[in-house]
UniProtKB/TrEMBL annotation:
Keyword DNA repair: no
Protein name according to UniProt: Class I SAM-dependent methyltransferase
Keywords on record: Methyltransferase, Transferase
Domain annotation Methyltransferase type: ranges: 42-130
Organism: Thermococcus aggregans
Amino acid sequence: MRIVDPNSIYRTVAKAKINRAMYLVDILRKNIPKDFKINRYLDAGGADGTNAYIFGRELNANEIWVLDIQRYQTQYDNVKYIVGDIRALPFENGYFDLVTAISVIEHVKERDKAIKECCRVLRPGGLLFIQIPNLKFPVDLHTGMFNPYLLPSPLRRRYVKAMGHEHWLEHVFKVSPGDIIKEAEAQGCNLVYTERIIYTEELIPNKLRAIYNLLKRLKVLDVMPLGFVLIFKKLEKCAGGN
């Protein structure tokens, strides 16, 4: 296992990942009270911990956790790592002040369980920050292919197989902001802010920048953003008494 010196973060991790995390944490920072204290923070489905490290550093969190279904070789100092499932978080009720799930929920088939768990481990008054892609956007940014969910259902599987991504439909599940809001509010986490994501050019993969910039100039992104950020606050008393 290789421990990354935070001072060398720009030398060890793709700069785009850092910039993306900074873009997202700025959204959160602008929409929480200045006196909101974040002692314990969890990034659920946080992979190598890049988002957790940036969020934790920028928000002055004292205890930073990353949970993912696999262990990554690259890890950051001051970040605690645990292997686990977002649908069954190994933490007690109300443990965290902030939970983030960034580009994660769309990969979880039992989405309702994941959201329920994220709400469960939040303290009353704690914040849940969720970022999801816009699955109506014409291009899938992971693969660069045309978004299969815009095709008629009978054609999707044949298309992704022809494009060499036959497992895509088993790893990316259709989800909308409305789905997330409904499921989070059922767990006592009320929506306090939402924002459409329109990344700057440096956050877009090189192979997609030309088409992205064209869509931006045509103002397509004003009505069809890349994704969404949703911020929820847990009520004092939530579903199930948590």
